[in-house]
Amino acid sequence: MTATVPADVERAFTETIERDQRVEPRDWMPDGYRKTMIRQIAQHAHSEIIGMQPEGAWITRAPSLRRKAILLAKVQDEAGHGLYLYSAAETLGADRGDLTRRLIEGRQKYSSIFNYPTLTFADVGVIGWLVDGAAICNQVPLCRSSYGPYARAMIRICKEESFHQRQGYELLMTMMGGTGAQRAMVQDAVDRWWWPSLMMFGPPDHDSPNSAQSMAWKIKRHSNDELRQRFVDMTVPQAEALGVTLPDPALRWNSERGHHDFGDIDWVEFKKVISGGGPMNAERIAHRRRADEDGAWVREAAAAHAAKKRGARS
Ligand SMILES: [Fe+2]
Ligand SMILES: [Fe+2]
What we know:
GO biological process, one term: phenylacetate catabolic process
Pfam family, one: PaaA_PaaC
Bound molecules: fe (ii) ion
Shape: globular
Protein name: Phenylacetate-CoA oxygenase subunit PaaA
GO molecular function, one term: phenylacetyl-CoA 1,2-epoxidase activity
InterPro entries: Aromatic_CoA_ox/epox, Ferritin-like, Ferritin-like_SF, PaaA, PaaA_PaaC
Number of strands: 2
Oligomer: single chain
């Protein structure tokens, strides 16, 4: 198909990218760009939707009305992020029902981080602090991503993610000012979530096959390793202020590099979790499939109502 595209149309796309302007839904774009963009947006949308589950499990067990209200708002925000993103994917010609099927049939991935269990209420705080913190590092550069609808959705999403991070940190600060048992609960949650949070940035640069093309198309602005380093450098002083220890004996400031050095990530675990073998993968997908089945009658009723209205108009 690309062979039949007139040279000036292709040039217009290249120039849009070079000038840091946005590609819009009606513009011509290479098939590869469209496919990459749909895949990235869909995976991002799935992550937001699946990401509601680990914390959603604590809504009924939040220790106070205030904590429950905050957590409810946060989980609802994640649903909203999923909806903006599915809409952005639709502007590229993707079908939302098809994307959902790909997710529940295990044909499309979502962030590995949501396949770990939330064992205590401290996990809610640590997810806000570390997981939403890592999401911010990943997503702030995406506000300048070359695809217009995605970049614009990301601006609003990032504002909400910073609220999520603050609420997590504030929750942890409160717990760290509490009893010894509460402090131990926070430390335990940090121990379990630290390494999976570092994995959120994806495989190391030398093992990230799609990165170079995504950087050339300005879908991505920084490499996985650059963003991971930025996250570590941002988080270390926050951990100190909180009074928790990050579970990495190799973590130390390197004055020559002007960055923190850190230990090796267990990429075997990452690959296992991302390909379906994490502790919660089966449960997360089963839950999502159930929600889809339970909602089928709503979709059918909405479609029937729309058809009836169309009939009445004609
Ligand atoms: Fe989100
Ligand atoms: Fe969030």
